[in-house]
Structure formats: structure tokens, C-alpha cells
Amino acid sequence: MANAGRSGAVSLLLNNRLAAAGVALLALIVAVALLAPVLPLADPNATAPADRLMRPFSPDHLLGTDALGRDILARLVWGTRVSLMVGISATAIAAMVGSAIGLVAGFVGGRIDGLLMRGIDMVMAFPYILLALAIVAVLGPGLLNALYAIAVVNVPFFARNVRGMALGLSRREFVDAARLSGQSGPEVLFAEVLPNVMPVIVVTMSTTVGWMILETAGLSFLGLGAQPPQADLGSMLGEGRKVLFNAPHVSVVPGLMIFVLVMSINLVGDGVRDVLDPRLKSGALARPSARTRVERADAPVATTPAAVLELKGLRTLFGLGGREVAAVRDVDLLIGEGECLGLVGESGSGKSVTAMSIMGLVPSPPGRIGGGAAFFRGRDLFALSDGEIRRMRGSAVAHVFQDPLSTLHPLFTIGDQLIEAIRAHRPLRRRTARQEAADLLALVRIPNPRLRLEAYPHELSGGMRQRVAIAMALANDADLVVADEPTTALDVTVQAEVLTLLNRLRQEKNAAVLFITHDFGVVSALCDRVAVMYAGEIVETGRTEAVLAAPAHPYTRRLVDCVPVLGEPERRLDAIEGRPPPPGALPKGCAFAPRCPSVAPVCREAPVAVRELAAGRTARCLFPLVGAGHV
Amino acid sequence: MIAYVAKRLLAAVPVLFGLTIIVFLIMAMIPGDPATAILGSYATPENVERLNRQLGLDRSLVEQYLVWITNLFHGDFGRSYALNRPVIDEVMERLSATLLLAGTALVLASVLGLLAGVVSAVRQYGWTDRIVTFLVLVGISMPAFWLGLLLILLFAVTWRLFPASGMVAIYGGGGPLDILRHLVLPAVTLAVVATGVIARLTRTAMLEVLRQDYIRTARAKGLRERRVIFRHAFVAALVAVVPVIGIQAGFVLGGAVYVETVFQWPGIGSMLVNAIATRDILLVQGGVLVVAAAYVLFNLAADVVQTLLDPRLR
């Protein structure tokens, strides 16, 4: 497993270790607080004026004494007990009241929901602590009143989270079923809805209990919570503050305790959240780097340096839960000057990964180039520096992606994005670049190009957006355009328009195109040659007419059979029974064997090699449907 | 855009009214008789009754509210009996000190939090990320009132770099430099928790944005990585972080209560604590209301900034 994968796992482990440390620390604090009555501690309230303000590590007083000569260690343990109790009680009250409001609002809905939530919004319109202060002002200072105040200001967090969940649940089938079976509203609420919102309540509790301990301590610190002789950590700190300058330990010690207590709770809360957030577990939030990592087992040399693009033995791997699987294996491809090559296959066949591997756009982690080479006019792209690759992206090799809504930046005008693409490679003045951008929009037949420069992507139709993306790819006269299903996300009529445009422009500009699609109909309209991919391998290549007329691989045959008239809705690939094998569980022999109508026992024994059927015609099949003579 | 801001301002009006209702109701729940509280327990029943009539307490709650809100509109927040001066004067005098402190802390927290979050996301799982993540955890667990005392012990007592207290009033006094010297420790103390929250959220938002298709497009265009991170990714992440900065304004304004007490900063927070101790209810009412209104405006500003950043919201 590669470096990034390992450090990701280490970090998750570290996170877990931190959570474990939090649990241990918290358990220790709670245990000591619970055992306070039986521990051999001094009387926390016994004053001894002669022993006042003793330093820590004094005989008989490990943590020293306070201004009245009371033992700080004993007071600390008892104060922690009070603070914990108050924090937990406040959490329980807030959870109960808040959840009740949330449950009713979400479950009953309608005007009651509106009314309750407006009220919650109003409470949340106050700065958190301020509202607590106002409540204490009314109820009067005191630990119990501080507890109520903190509970009240935390009610909205529970109400909101629980309401969201209850609202979703109240529309689910099992709740309807319970209602129809004659259970009353409250019965359904308690029997069906409550158990399902429990996790939300627990998570909210684990994230708020730390604050609540902190805030009640804060109120006590201000003199509005615990009143003497009663003491919690906050009031100890507040009293200690009076002797801050001559005996700092009297206030530093209880403050440190609050800090350690809250931090241990936060550690546990973070751990809980990490465990409950599946995105973190799968590493999906890992940040992809600027370029696919290259760690090749082999680096072949170019055999056709004149070609615009030559792939030799390309192998792209993905880290999946501690294991690495090859999404693309031993892919060889050749694209000549101004040629359009169609790369065809079902989703998951590895065609996009192949295309994104060329310029290092496969996210790393989890992906990496594990072997082979991609040559651009004979230069090994995988051996270039990051800077060299960056300078080629968008100038020598441009990309058009599938969904133009998600691939254009939502916050910048298309003018800004086009100008940026131009100026990334040519040191033009902004005004000149702007003129060029308008010309590009005119080139892709967007009406009122100057005006459209000011538009944001969301203000354009899907077809228009994809024209903008094409314009961007053409901005620097790229030699090769990689188009990854550029029409799949579009309406059928728009698809045909965009395809026609793309075809015209590539001929005008004499750009080579690698066109990725799952649609043989599109291939026949656009591509000079075609390569068919299945389960990460190329299974057939040839001139488009030849392959369409007489497919050699049984898989290609199936794909071609599914071709409808150009422009009809999709779902033709569903016509092949079964699914392609996942990259982690390939069969020993031919990957298509499980779905092949003409499979023989020998097909399952060993991987099948590519065979050349005729010049420029290959198939990865032991029993090609056409013999060498037929091509 | 101006129309949008006007619309948002208009939408804030019912929220402000809601605030007055809640504050009024909380104060109306005060147990006991305010007149007795003011006159003391030895007051004669006749005097109590007269004062009640004077204060309008013999009328219905709705009438009382209407009288009260009308007075608010005329800038009459009542009179502080402990200070024996109009509440509005005292509150307005202290509001500028609180806004200076909270504003500085919020700017400090935003700048540091955003920076730390971006660095942490870009160096995900690296040492920088781990250190930032740990510091964030320490920051959000830190009791501000304790941190303030520690900073006083270190910077004011041991090293004598900054004053521990002694900020008297914003106007007059020793000029901007003196204000700045007094501002450093409280502003840092107040900023710590908000910095942690903003850094944490920025990190998550950046990681989320960096996985988006448009970041791949930016890289496919051949942009420098610096530009991809600080223009394409950061601006998009900012859209998610700005509302949280608005919410943090509330925590900073609230946290000012502790920090002002610790550093004896002449703001609304320390005023409120004293007012509660002396049960100066009208002063509490006025202070809470004004700070809550300031919070509403902070959130409004955050909304407007978010809309400026994201054309889809317009």
C-alpha cells in the first residue's frame, strides 16, 4: 500500500487513539468524582486561617490551600463532582425538553411545527450566553438557576436536530403502517419514532455536554452560579481570582481541571462523530493531490513517437480499504494526428480512469499510476515534472468533462473562467484575452457572446454550459482533446447539436480527440477508430466501420446489437445480462467469460492475450467472431 | 444588491420584534413585586400601589408591552436605579467598548481560523495538519475566563508586556496606542474559541470543495496549484464558512461577558454582571436587547457577504 494510504490509516488510528485517551481521562475523572466520599481527602470546607495560601506540594496539602486555608485537592475533587453533576443534569434537561419539542414539531407538522420552530429561531437569535444571563437575572444567582439557564439556551440544538430527523421519519412507510394499524399519535411517536431519533439525541448530547459544563462553570465564575459554601470548579476559580497575584495556583488549578474535563469530553465527542460519519471512515474526505501519483513497476519506451498519444501497458491502481486494485490493466492505445478515437464501455469499465490517467487527473489518494506509460508525441508524460505537466494541461491536452454544471466553477462568470484558461498559458492582457474569450463563445455558436461573458454557469442551459466547456478546451489550440462523456448529461436533442459542433470544430482545428462514451451510436457518428473496454482491459480495437460491420469480441457484438438509431434514449447497455466483475474480484481467465454466450472451458483457465486479427484490428478473445480472413 | 440588502434588513425587523417580546416576557416573569423590590420591604401598601400605577404594572401584559416598546422607540429604556441615570446612556457608552473588543476578536479569529483551516486541509494528515488539529481541540476546550487569567499571569505579571486591566473608557484616555495595548490580551482571549471553531469548519469545507469536479477542471486548465487552492477552492469554501463566522459573532459577544469581567473592560458584559448582582433589571433588559440586536446585525452582514460571494443566492 502506498504512502498516502498508509498515512491516512495512521491518522485515523491516531484519531482513535485520541478518542481512547479521552475516554480513559474522562473515566478517571468521573471515577474520582464518584468516589469522593470514600477517598482519603481532607474536609473540603474545613477552614484553617493559619494555613492559608500554602503552595502546592506542601506537606499535607498536595495542591496547596486557598485563601481560607482549605485543602485545594479536596475542594477540587468535590468541585469536579458538582460541576459534572450540574453539566450532566443540564444536558439531560435540555435533551428532554428539546427532543420533546423537536419530536412534536417534526411529527405533527403544520402550524404547530411552524409556531414551535419560530420560537426556537427567536431563542437562537440571542447570543448564547447572554440569554442565560438574562434568565439568571430573573431567577436570581444560584447553582440550580444557572443549571436551568444553561439547559434552556441549549434546548434549540436538540429541538432542531430532532425535528429534522422526526420530520423525515414521519413520512416513512413503517410509521404510516403503525398509524394505519390503529395506534394513536403518541403511541406511534414513542414506539416508532423515538427509538429512531435516539442516535441523534445521543450525538447532540455528546457535543453539547462539554459546553454546558463550561458555561455553568462560567456563570459560577461570574458569581452567578454556585454560592458559598457550595463550590463548583467555576466558583473556585472565581474566588481564586481574588488572590491571583500572590497565589496563582488557587485559580490556575481549578481552571486546569475544567479545561482537562472539557477537552476529554470533546475528544470522546470527536471520536463518536468520526465513527458515525461514514465519509471519514471510507477516506472519501481525503484531499486529492494536484497530480496522480506515479509509482511504476515498469516504464516502456515509445514505439510510435509520431503519434499524438500512445498508451503502453497503462496500469492504474486504486487503494480500497487497505487493499489496492487495478481499475485499468495493460491498456495500449494509439491516436494519430487529428484522429478521433472512441473509447467505449459500460460504466465501471475503466474508460474514464484511462482517460484521466493521461494528464494525471486521477485523484491521489486513492489512485496511482502503477505501470506503463503515456507518450505525447513520444514524450513520457509520467516522467515529466509537475510543472511540465501543468504547462501541458489545457494547452497541449485539453479536457471536456461530463456534467457541465458541476465542472464549471459556480462562483465565477464564464468570462472569468475562459480568460483564466487563456491566460494560464499565454501572457495576454486582460482585454485581449477577453476579446478572445468572446470569439471562442462565438466559435461554439453561443449568441451574444460579449453579453454571455458576464453570465454565471447556473444562468445557462445544460447545452450552453457544455458549449462553454468545449470553448474552454479549444482556448489554446490543444493537439489532443480528451472528452469524457461530454453529451451524457444533456437532453437528447441537445446531444446531437453538441456532437455536431464538436465534430466540426475538431476538423477545423485539426485536433485529435479521445472520445469516451458508452454509446456506440455516438461512436459511429464521430470516431475514426474505436477501442472497446471491459473490466479495465481493451478487448477490441479497429476502424469504426470495420468493428461496427463485424465485431470480433462477443462483448462488442452485444454492444453493437444494442445500438439504436442515434439520438434515442439510453438504457441499451442494460440489454446485456449480468454485470461486469468488480475490479477487486476478477475471474482467473477471460473477464467476460461469466457473461459470454459462446464461453468455452478454456476461456476460464488463464488470462486471454490480445490477438491481432488484421492490420489495425485486435481482439482479446480465444474465439473471435470473425477470422483473420473476414476483416 | 441594494434591493437585496434592503430586503434582508426588512426581514430582520420581525426578528428584532421577537427579541423584544422574549426579553419583555423574561423580565415579566420576575418573581415578586418590582415596586416592593424598589421601595424595599418596609414600604407602605399605598406607596407600593402608587408606584405600581406609576410603572404601569396594574395594566394587562399586552398593554404593558405596548407602552414599553413605544418608549423603546423613543430611546427610553427606563432608568437604572443603581446608577441613577438613563439606561440608554449607560448602554450606549459601554456598547462601543464591547463592539471594539468583540469586533477585534472576531476579525482575529476569522483571519487565523481561515488560515489555519486552509493550511490544515492542504496538508491533510501531514504534521502541520496534526498540530493544527490538536491546537484547535485545545482552543475549543479552553475556558475563556481561565485563559484570561493565565495570560494576565504571563504577559502582565511575569513579563510585564501588556496591562492586565485599567482600560477606562474608549474616548479620552491615552489615545489609540494605549487602547491597542489594553486591547491585545482581552481580544486574544476572546478570539481563541472562535478561532478553533472557524479553523475546524474551514478545514472540512476545504476538503469537501477540493473533491469537486470544478477543482479538477481548474487543474485540467493548467492553473498553478496556488491559484487552484486560494482562488477556486478557498472562495467556494468561504461560502460555507461565512455564516458560521456570523454565528460565532454571537459566541464572541456572549464570551465578552467573561473576558470583560476578567480584564475589567468597560463594556456591556461587565455591566450586565454587575447589574445582575445588584438586580438592576432595567439595565439588564437594555443591555441584553442592544447586544442581541447587534448580533442580528452581525448575522445580517454575514448573509450579505455570503450573497456577494455566491451568485446563485442572488
TrEMBL record, chain A:
<keyword id="KW-0813">Transport</keyword>
<feature type="transmembrane region" description="Helical">
    <location>
        <begin position="84"/>
        <end position="108"/>
    </location>
</feature>
<dbReference type="Pfam" id="PF00528">
    <property type="entry name" value="BPD_transp_1"/>
</dbReference>
<dbReference type="InterPro" id="IPR050388">
    <property type="entry name" value="ABC_Ni/Peptide_Import"/>
</dbReference>
<keyword id="KW-1003">Cell membrane</keyword>
<feature type="transmembrane region" description="Helical">
    <location>
        <begin position="128"/>
        <end position="151"/>
    </location>
</feature>
<dbReference type="GO" id="GO:0005886">
    <property type="term" value="C:plasma membrane"/>
</dbReference>
<feature type="transmembrane region" description="Helical">
    <location>
        <begin position="197"/>
        <end position="222"/>
    </location>
</feature>
<keyword id="KW-0547">Nucleotide-binding</keyword>
<dbReference type="InterPro" id="IPR000515">
    <property type="entry name" value="MetI-like"/>
</dbReference>
<dbReference type="InterPro" id="IPR003439">
    <property type="entry name" value="ABC_transporter-like_ATP-bd"/>
</dbReference>
<keyword id="KW-0812">Transmembrane</keyword>
<comment type="similarity">
    <text>Belongs to the ABC transporter superfamily.</text>
</comment>
<feature type="transmembrane region" description="Helical">
    <location>
        <begin position="243"/>
        <end position="265"/>
    </location>
</feature>
<dbReference type="InterPro" id="IPR027417">
    <property type="entry name" value="P-loop_NTPase"/>
</dbReference>
<dbReference type="InterPro" id="IPR003593">
    <property type="entry name" value="AAA+_ATPase"/>
</dbReference>
<dbReference type="InterPro" id="IPR035906">
    <property type="entry name" value="MetI-like_sf"/>
</dbReference>
<keyword id="KW-1133">Transmembrane helix</keyword>
<dbReference type="Pfam" id="PF08352">
    <property type="entry name" value="oligo_HPY"/>
</dbReference>
<dbReference type="GO" id="GO:0016887">
    <property type="term" value="F:ATP hydrolysis activity"/>
</dbReference>
<dbReference type="Pfam" id="PF00005">
    <property type="entry name" value="ABC_tran"/>
</dbReference>
<feature type="domain" description="ABC transmembrane type-1">
    <location>
        <begin position="80"/>
        <end position="269"/>
    </location>
</feature>
TrEMBL record, chain B:
<feature type="transmembrane region" description="Helical">
    <location>
        <begin position="9"/>
        <end position="30"/>
    </location>
</feature>
<feature type="domain" description="ABC transmembrane type-1">
    <location>
        <begin position="95"/>
        <end position="301"/>
    </location>
</feature>
<feature type="transmembrane region" description="Helical">
    <location>
        <begin position="134"/>
        <end position="159"/>
    </location>
</feature>
<dbReference type="GO" id="GO:0055085">
    <property type="term" value="P:transmembrane transport"/>
</dbReference>
<comment type="similarity">
    <text>Belongs to the binding-protein-dependent transport system permease family.</text>
</comment>
<feature type="transmembrane region" description="Helical">
    <location>
        <begin position="233"/>
        <end position="259"/>
    </location>
</feature>
<dbReference type="InterPro" id="IPR045621">
    <property type="entry name" value="BPD_transp_1_N"/>
</dbReference>
<feature type="transmembrane region" description="Helical">
    <location>
        <begin position="281"/>
        <end position="305"/>
    </location>
</feature>
<dbReference type="Pfam" id="PF00528">
    <property type="entry name" value="BPD_transp_1"/>
</dbReference>
<keyword id="KW-0472">Membrane</keyword>
<dbReference type="GO" id="GO:0005886">
    <property type="term" value="C:plasma membrane"/>
</dbReference>
<dbReference type="InterPro" id="IPR035906">
    <property type="entry name" value="MetI-like_sf"/>
</dbReference>
<keyword id="KW-1133">Transmembrane helix</keyword>
<keyword id="KW-0813">Transport</keyword>
<keyword id="KW-1003">Cell membrane</keyword>
<protein>
    <submittedName>
        <fullName>ABC transporter permease</fullName>
    </submittedName>
</protein>
<dbReference type="Pfam" id="PF19300">
    <property type="entry name" value="BPD_transp_1_N"/>
</dbReference>
<dbReference type="InterPro" id="IPR000515">
    <property type="entry name" value="MetI-like"/>
</dbReference>
<feature type="transmembrane region" description="Helical">
    <location>
        <begin position="99"/>
        <end position="122"/>
    </location>
</feature>
<keyword id="KW-0812">Transmembrane</keyword>
<feature type="transmembrane region" description="Helical">
    <location>
        <begin position="179"/>
        <end position="201"/>
    </location>
</feature>
